[in-house]
């Protein structure tokens, strides 16, 4: 009997110890709450021999990087001390049933007015990697932007060798003049506003520009070590090539989704996209330029100057002149197409590519540039843009509020699944019948249905590459092509095994992109070209995803501090 008692007691102690260990473990891995204060304020900043007041967050340009872990809750209190209304979008975060935290002005919220605050309160669920945040009203994202770094859960490794260090690298654009004044002038004339005067890397144009020796970003590296670069394209209107002199890069992630690694001497990144690369400091110690300049394969004016930063080996004097990388030519379509073809989802048991195989809803959207009447503009017209010949009209209240509270007269859910007219979309340039219809027309999608959307460029005025961003979701880019999409032949060539998963897709010049996603996130989700110029012209719409049957599949009630219009 004594032995049995001892055994029982020992067993009990053992079970208690295990319970305490598991409890401690659960405390250790419990999700944290990260809090940030974003003060939107005007600050004088000098670039290219010229100072001007710009809108910033916390007086910093670019703004602060938001750090969190997968599973964390994040609270960001945005206090607006600038003269403009403000809203901030957390680009690429899915915001499940929580569109109130998504940020696009007049889509999911009314903007934060001067003197007011709003707390963006969201959970980071099932995502890890590099994303970014930016103003989502007017052209204020020219200076109001920054990175989001989501670390994997504790004790969960990267699916690639752990780097020795990491750096955030954010590309942007810089104007001498006040950006909002430049846009107003363009709109008044009915013409595109003046292009930027420089590109920037972490807010700095680099020493190839005047007065920019001190406005140069440099990252120090040690011989033999590997570095993770978290790259964001925050430029307003330019797809960009990026390279590091003498060094290859291994792409391991796009838009916060792991990829099959591949090595390249340059990368292409569209506005709104992010790319993580591993770089080995394996060359002769020295100073090497990192360089960025636009990709544009049609004769449209672009700020084609090269911004630079320095990849600096430790203990090398700054008097050593860096060498420049060889970037693809500005119109190198073949590089752009072949680079994007190399992007593949990792598709492992831990990081599967759950591509929808069956499609419930087929959508076909044509991109068009066009004209609209404007009595005060040159020639009596202004440039506009459309999807399926509809130029989107922004409402005066948030679409998500209108949807949630069933407000009448704010929007219609009659956005067409296909264009009104079939034509040779990418044939000779079309310069007649360029007027579009206007409206706040949305596409309604049944909860949990699978959607295939083919986005087709057209030669209305001109073909052009367009990066399209879908809020609230990732999608799989199952196919792309040049020319007109052929529904009888092209789907047979889709990649349904390991297509790239992302939140922003580059529709190729004079071509098409096919994306698939599952509409499992209820709410109102913006879909727009991420070239700020085209968004302002009306190249946008939104999806209304209906509520699901379960309690956790409906749009949450709005927060008490939601701004009013």
Automatic annotation (TrEMBL):
Lignin degradation and detoxification of lignin-derived products. It is found in: Secreted, Extracellular space, Apoplast. It holds the Pfam family Cu-oxidase_2. Keywords: Apoplast, Copper, Glycoprotein, Lignin degradation, Metal-binding, Oxidoreductase, Repeat, Secreted, Signal. GO terms for molecular function: copper ion binding; hydroquinone:oxygen oxidoreductase activity. This is Laccase. Its EC number is 1.10.3.2. It catalyses: 4 hydroquinone + O2 = 4 benzosemiquinone + 2 H2O. InterPro entries: Cu-oxidase-like_N, Cu-oxidase_2nd, Cu-oxidase_C, Cu-oxidase_fam, Cu_oxidase_CS, Cu_oxidase_Cu_BS, Cupredoxin, CuRO_1_LCC. Residues 40-154, 166-315, 414-548 form the Plastocyanin-like domain. It comes from Lactuca saligna (Willowleaf lettuce). Its cofactor is Cu cation. GO terms for cellular component: apoplast. Belongs to the multicopper oxidase family.
């Amino acid at each position: 009997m004594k032995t049995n008692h001892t055994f029982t007691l020992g067993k009990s102690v053992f079970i208690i110890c295990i319970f305490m260990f598991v409890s401690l473990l659960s405390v250790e891995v419990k999700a944290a709450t990260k809090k940030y204060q974003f003060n939107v304020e005007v600050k004088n900043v000098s670039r290219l021999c010229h100072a001007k007041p710009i809108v910033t967050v916390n007086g910093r340009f670019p703004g602060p990087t938001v750090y969190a872990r997968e599973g964390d809750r994040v609270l960001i209190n945005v206090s607006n001390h600038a003269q403009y209304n403000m809203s901030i979008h957390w680009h690429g975060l899915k915001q499940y049933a929580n569109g109130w935290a998504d940020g696009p002005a007049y889509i999911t919220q009314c903007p934060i007015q001067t003197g007011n605050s709003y707390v963006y309160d969201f959970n980071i669920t099932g995502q890890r990697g590099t994303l970014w945040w930016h103003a989502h009203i007017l052209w204020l994202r020219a200076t109001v932007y920054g990175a989001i770094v989501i670390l994997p859960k504790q004790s969960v490794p990267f699916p690639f060798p752990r780097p020795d260090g990491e750096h955030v690298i954010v590309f942007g654009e810089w104007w001498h003049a006040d950006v909002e004044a430049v846009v107003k002038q363009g709109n008044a004339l009915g013409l595109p506003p003046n292009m930027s005067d420089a590109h920037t890397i972490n807010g700095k144009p680099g020493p190839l520009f005047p007065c920019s020796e001190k406005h140069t970003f440099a990252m120090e590296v040690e011989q033999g070590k590997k570095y993770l670069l978290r790259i964001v394209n925050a430029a307003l209107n330019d797809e960009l090539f990026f390279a590091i002199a003498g060094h290859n890069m291994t792409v391991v992630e796009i838009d916060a989704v792991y990829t099959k690694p591949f090595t390249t001497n340059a990368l292409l990144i569209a506005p709104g996209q992010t790319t993580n690369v591993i770089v080995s400091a394996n060359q002769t110690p020295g100073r090497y330029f990192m360089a960025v300049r636009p990709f544009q394969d049609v004769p449209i004016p672009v700020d084609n100057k090269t911004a630079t930063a320095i990849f600096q080996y430790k203990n090398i004097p700054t008097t050593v002149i860096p060498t420049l990388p060889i970037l693809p030519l500005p119109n190198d379509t073949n590089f752009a197409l072949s680079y994007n073809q190399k992007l593949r989802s990792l598709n492992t048991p831990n990081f599967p590519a759950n591509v929808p195989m069956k499609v419930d809803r087929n959508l076909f959207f044509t991109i068009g540039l066009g004209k609209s009447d404007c009595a005060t503009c040159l020639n009596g017209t202004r440039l506009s843009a459309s999807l399926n010949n509809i130029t989107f009209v922004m409402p005066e209240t948030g679409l998500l509020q209108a949807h949630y509270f069933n407000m009448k007269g704010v929007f219609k859910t009659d956005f067409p699944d296909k264009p009104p007219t079939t034509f040779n979309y990418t044939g000779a340039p079309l310069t007649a019948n360029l007027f579009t219809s206007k409206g706040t027309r949305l596409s309604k999608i049944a909860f949990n249905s699978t959607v295939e959307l083919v986005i087709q460029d057209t030669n209305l005025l001109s073909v052009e590459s367009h990066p399209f961003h879908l809020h609230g979701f990732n999608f799989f880019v199952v196919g792309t092509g040049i020319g007109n999409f052929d529904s009888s032949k092209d789907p047979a060539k889709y990649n349904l095994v390991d297509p790239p998963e992302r939140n922003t897709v580059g529709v190729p010049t004079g071509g098409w992109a096919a994306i698939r996603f599952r509409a499992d996130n209820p709410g109102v989700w913006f879909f727009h070209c991420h070239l700020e110029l085209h968004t302002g012209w009306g190249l946008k719409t939104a999806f209304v995803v209906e509520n699901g049957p379960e309690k956790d599949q409906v749009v949450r009630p709005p927060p008490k501090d939601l701004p009013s219009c």
